[in-house]
Sequence to fold (231 residues):
Amino acid sequence: DTGVSQDPRHKITKRGQNVTFRCDPISEHNRLYWYRQTLGQGPEFLTYFQNEAQLEKSRLLSDRFSAERPKGSFSTLEIQRTEQGDSAMYLCASSLGSGPLGETQYFGPGTRLLVL
Amino acid sequence: AQSVTQPDIHITVSEGASLELRCNYSYGATPYLFWYVQSPGQGLQLLLKYFSGDTLVQGIKGFEAEFKRSQSSFNLRKPSVHWSDAAEYFCAVGSLTGGGNKLTFGTGTQLKVEL
Fold:
């Protein structure tokens, strides 16, 4: 068990550029979540995958955001035309879930994005 | 909608002293409750969780939490704090979403430990 990994750990970009983050979940975890954490706040839910299907998206996820999880393994989160308000820590979590009961989510170290 | 309140933004305790971090939640059904800790440059690490059963939950690093339904609380405690416990602590409630469980976090409590 190598844990959840995220790449890159830090990203600095200029406003208007596109960025893409990658998350590699714990092997065999079928559920994958993305959260965003701004300074002084707790993480906020963005989106959720069960295997390769994206089953829930928060209203926080504007049209400029897109997430994928091809083949139910790693996931990518892309932000198009970045804005300064997108500056945040983007966290990925994975879990092994079967049914509606609560499960434990394991978090990666996050990708810190700074938009200049 | 579910929500979590952590009333204390910052707490300072002396090493060896006891600790209690407060957490109040709002959720219409039986809550799934979690405490996570976040150190600088680190991801969120799960300390403990409550799904059902015994309302006093034991976690890692000597932490425990007590679920009190009547008070909608899930306070985190540790009898003797170590300097390495300095970090930010987040309480979270899990809710069903599309078959999964999204977490709603509080704003966190920053713990400082004085030597």
User: Anything to note?
Assistant: Residues 85 and 115 of chain A are 8 Å apart (CA to CA). Chain A has a mean pLDDT of 93.
